[in-house]
Amino acid sequence: MLVLLFLVAFTLCSTTSFAHSHYNWSPSSTTTEWRPARATYYAAADPRDVVGGACGYGDLERNGYGKSTAGLSTVLFDRGQICGACFQVRCVEDLRWCIPGTSIIVTATNFCAPNYGFEPDGGGHCNPPNAHFVLPIEAFEKIAIWKASNMPIQYRRIKCRKEGGVRFTLDGAGIFLSVLISNVAGAGDIVAAKIKGSRTGWLSMGRNWGQNWHINADLKNQPLSFEITSSDGVTLTSYNVAPKNWNFGQTFQGKQFET
Fold first, then answer.
1. How many C-beta atoms lie closer than 10 Å to residue 140's C-beta?
2. CA nearest 57: which of 180, 170, 161?
3. Least crowded by CB within 10 Å, which of 7, 68, 216, 241?
4. What is the pLDDT of residue 134?
5. Are residues 152 and 170 in the same domain?
6. 15 touches 228 (CB < 8 A)
7. DSSP code of residue 127
8. Which residues form the domain of 218?
9. Predicted pLDDT of residue 49
10. Residues 174 and 151 in one domain
11. Residue 5 pLDDT
12. What does the angle CA 66 – CA 112 – CA 166 come to, to the nearest 5 degrees?
C-alpha cells in the first residue's frame, strides 16, 4: 500500500556569495548524470494533490508548483532535505508505453513512505533501496501511457527555474516564528537559513520539517531580512523583505538565485 505523508512585497537590496556545504551536489555542474528509477502516478481526485505534501508547500496550484511535482522515496527524500529540488524525468526501456523523445521537469514536494508489509520488488515501491518517483497523472502522461503503471524511468538533478523571487511565508504565535521558504530557483533546496530584525544581528533558524524553518525570538514590529544557503553552497541575502508591520500568515518576496 502506497502512503504519502501530507503533511509578495519588497526587497531593498541583495547580495550573493558562495558558502561551504556538506551536501554532495556539485555547484560546478548544473546537472547530474542520468540514473535509473521507477515511477507510478496518483489520480487527480486524490486529496494529496491538494494538500501539497510533506515539504509543507501547501496548495501547490496556488503556490506556483502546479502538477509538475513529485513524491520521492526514502533514499531520495533525504529526510526532507531534498524539498524544492528539481529533476528531469524520462521514460525508458518500455517501447509499449513510453512516449518517445519526451521528458518532464518536476519539483520535489512530497514523501513516498515505505510500506514494509511488501518486499521492495513486490509492491513496496518506495521501500529502501528503491529510487522511486510518485507523479500526478497529468505529469506521468506526458512521458508514458497511463496503463504502464509502475514504469522504469531515468532521472537527473537539474537547476530550478522559477518566476519571481524566493517566497517567505510567516507563521507562528508570540515569539515562535515559522518561515516556509518556497519558489526557490537554482539548486532549489535550502540547507541553512538566517533571519535578522532591525534590532538584532543575524539569527540562525532551525529546520522544522520540509522547507519550514523556525526560531524563538521576539521580532515583531521589526522589518525582517533573510539569508538562505542552497545545497550547492550559494548564499543569497535579501534585506528588509517583510516590512515593520508584518503579520503571521503573510507571504513576502525576496531576491532570487541565479539560474
1. 26
2. 180
3. 216
4. 96
5. no
6. no
7. S
8. 166-254
9. 45
10. no
11. 35
12. 40
Last residue within a domain, chosen from 158, 191, 224: 158
Residues 138 and 200 in one domain: no
In a domain, 118, yes or no: yes
Which strand (E) or helix (H) includes residue 35? strand 35-42
In this structure, what C-alpha cell is assigned to residue 89? 524525468
According to the model, what pLDDT value does residue 219 have? 97
Q: How far apart are the first and last CA of the chain?
A: 38
175 with 208, same domain? yes
The CATH number given to whatever domain includes residue 197 is 2.60.40.760
Residue 115 and residue 51 share a domain:
yes
Picking from 109, 135, 158, the residue at the C-terminal end of a domain is: 158
Region for 84 from its dihedrals, namely left if φ exceeds 0, alpha if ψ lies in -120 to 50, beta otherwise: left
| pTM score of the predicted model | 0.85
Alpha-carbon distance values, 9 to 15, 205, 252 (Å): 18, 22, 5
CA 182/CA 241 separation, integer angstroms: 14
The Cα–Cα gap between 80 and 109 comes to 9
Q: How high is the mean pLDDT in each 10-residue block of the chain (259 residues)?
A: 34 33 40 91 64 83 90 95 97 87 96 93 92 95 91 96 96 96 97 97 96 97 98 97 97 94
Q: What is the pLDDT of residue 46?
A: 54
